[in-house]
């Protein structure tokens, strides 16, 4: 039954998406431009950047392409739940959805499933462009380890995204968690440059962000030929983040949902 509901949500969102062909075309063009931009930045600064990349055994272009490709998954996990809750509030259907036989978890997963599917498509396109047009190189990649790391990363950031959705219920137009974590991730987690570039005092911030371990492990798995055993320290940290964030996300979302039901602001937007 749950899979049938997910399929219904997915079918609905896919139909909406394909009806906007220009939007899809512009998305693809934007991805090509983004990859090309970083390719030429890498050509300009690649040699100076290579001094910070010995542990990755790769060039700067491959390093940064993994960062921008897979960070789209992390930003999707951070924002999708809050965005869809906000859309449902603004369109006036949130209350109606919550009184259906479907659980809150089913509704939130269903509303967001297309975003994850499309993000997977975007990552594939990023990598295809990078490999076939700009010479991105992999070094004995461990695909299964990469998939596991990606799944753990999505879980971690989805729990933060659920907290954001809870705050959206109360604050309506904006919430602090997703914005704050997203900003820190872009600057301190090694999306665009190795964290070793940062001053030592600022590097400390990186160690409190799950994306730091996600991106480092993904790069080591796909670009550096690391074995699963060598990846275990970062994987273990992601598991700990997941264990800590799960109850926190559930508590915050349940509390905020209960509060807006009590004060009658669930349908306010």
From TrEMBL:
Compartments in which it is found: Cell membrane; Membrane
Pfam families named in the record: ABC2_membrane
TM ranges: 20-41, 61-82, 116-137, 143-170, 177-195, 235-253
GO molecular function annotation: ABC-type transporter activity
Domain (ABC transmembrane type-2) ranges: 22-256
Superkingdom of source: Bacteria
PROSITE patterns given in the database record: ABC_TM2
Topology within the bilayer: Multi-pass membrane protein
Keywords attached to this entry: Cell membrane, Membrane, Transmembrane, Transmembrane helix, Transport
Main location: membrane
GO CC aspect terms: plasma membrane
Stored InterPro entries: ABC2_TM, ABC2_TM_bact-type, Nod_factor_ABC_transporter
Family membership noted in the UniProt record: Belongs to the ABC-2 integral membrane protein family.
Annotated protein name in UniProt: Transport permease protein
């Amino acid at each position: 039954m749950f899979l049938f509901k997910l399929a219904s949500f997915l079918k609905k969102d896919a139909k909406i998406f394909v009806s906007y062909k220009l939007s899809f075309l512009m998305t693809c063009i934007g991805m090509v431009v983004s990859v090309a931009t970083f390719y030429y930045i890498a050509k300009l600064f690649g040699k100076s950047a290579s001094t910070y990349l010995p542990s990755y055994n790769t060039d700067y272009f491959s390093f940064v392409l993994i960062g921008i490709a897979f960070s789209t998954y992390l930003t999707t996990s951070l924002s999708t739940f809050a965005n869809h809750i906000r859309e449902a509030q603004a369109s006036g259907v949130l209350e109606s959805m919550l009184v259906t036989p479907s659980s809150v978890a089913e509704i939130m997963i269903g509303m967001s499933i297309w975003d994850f599917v499309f993000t997977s498509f975007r990552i594939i396109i990023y990598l295809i462009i990078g490999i076939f047009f700009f010479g991105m190189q992999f070094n004995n990649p461990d695909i299964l380890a990469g998939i596991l790391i990606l799944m753990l990363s999505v879980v971690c950031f989805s729990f933060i995204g659920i907290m954001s959705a809870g705050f959206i219920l109360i604050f309506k137009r904006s919430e602090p968690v997703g914005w704050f974590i997203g900003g820190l991730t872009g600057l301190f987690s090694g999306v665009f440059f190795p964290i070793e570039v940062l001053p030592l005092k600022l590097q400390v911030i990186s160690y409190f962000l799950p994306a730091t371990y996600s991106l480092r492990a993904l790069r080591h798995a796909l670009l550096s030929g690391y074995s699963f055993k060598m990846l275990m320290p970062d994987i273990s940290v992601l598991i700990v983040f997941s264990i800590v964030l799960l109850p926190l996300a559930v508590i915050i979302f349940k509390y905020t949902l209960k509060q807006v039901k009590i004060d009658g602001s669930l349908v306010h937007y």
